[in-house]
Amino acid sequence: MQLYIYGRSGHNFGLENIRRASALCGLLKDCDPILCSADYRAATFAKEYLDVDKGVGVDVIGNMPNVMERGDMLIYDDGNEASQTMQEHMQEFCQALYKVGKDIPFDIVDERFFDKGDQSIEKAIFFADDDYSEWFLKLLETGSKKEFPLLWGHYFFFKNETKIAEYFSEVLEEEEYIDTVKNTKYLLTASVHTALESLAAGNFPVFFKRGDKEVSNFDLIEKYNIPVVEGNDFDELIGNFDKVINDYPEIKELDKFDISTVKNEIEEILKRFETVKPSLEYKF
How far apart are CA 174 and CA 171, in angstroms? Predict the structure, then answer.
């Protein structure tokens, strides 16, 4: 019997689910989980940068039976990818099934962010992991160079790196993600999950809504009273960012999620079925 953790991902909707799923892999490391991603690049990224031991690409959640066996356990963060019928089949197929956003909260971050950073970077920007429509690049082209660093996104086009670098004092590569988020006092980001990681590290995130797609889990920005800025162009956006820094509001603290109940249930099932081998095939 095996525990699987599924996170939907892709070049046009980023890695927020993968970052949450990887955090769960860390919290449930004793259960030897396997991370499954809709994109093999995301699974590779999680193993290389997020301390995930095992990860595979499965394209879509409907392919999970191709890697699972009947009676395995699944935690899934799918962005409503699975239909109600599929979820019912998953419930029947799995010995235990947990949905992020229902059984496990969305505001769960890697425990490493709770080790407070040193705020050695006064301010920086991390747009998001993805800029498939090149919306961020087009926004930059409406403004002038800023004297603070940009943290590079995983699904940015590398052909744009030279163009984007012209607008910042420095471009930080993705392997510097954790250290940058932990150590930046004021981080401007369009990623809800990154804002929560910054908050966990004791910093002061500022959120801006991207203009090319809907923001998932924006209610978490409101929950923790993280300030939001907008701008008709890049200069106006950064000007509003600086105004927030000068009069930063009171924000709520992000607490660690207590995974013990879920972990105890999974460990009990693993122990109970450690000698049982599945004999039936089933597809959901």
Answer: 10
Nearest-Å Rg of the Cα atoms of the chain is 20
Rounded to whole angstroms, the Cα distance separating 203 from 117 reads 8
Q: 48: closest CA among 154, 195, 146, 186?
A: 154
138 secondary structure, DSSP code: H
Question: What is the arrangement of strands in the sheet containing 184-189, beginning at the earlier edge strand?
Answer: 168-172, 146-151, 121-126, 184-189, 206-208, 228-229
In this prediction, the residues of the chain whose per-residue pLDDT falls under 50 are 279-280, 282
The DSSP call for residue 253 is: P
CATH code reported for the domain at 111-246: 3.40.50.2000
125-171 residue pLDDT tens: 999 999 989 999 999 999 999 999 999 999 998 899 999 999 999 99
Measured CA to CA, the distance from residue 100 to residue 193 in angstroms comes to: 14
Task: Domain ranges for the chain, please list them.
Answer: 3-106+257-272, 111-246
**Residue 229: CB atoms within 10 Å:** 18
Contact 175, 66 (CB under 8 A): no
Helices (H), the chain: 16-27, 40-49, 84-93, 135-140, 161-165, 177-183, 192-200, 218-223, 234-246, 260-272
Continuous segment of H or E residues that includes residue 75: strand 73-77
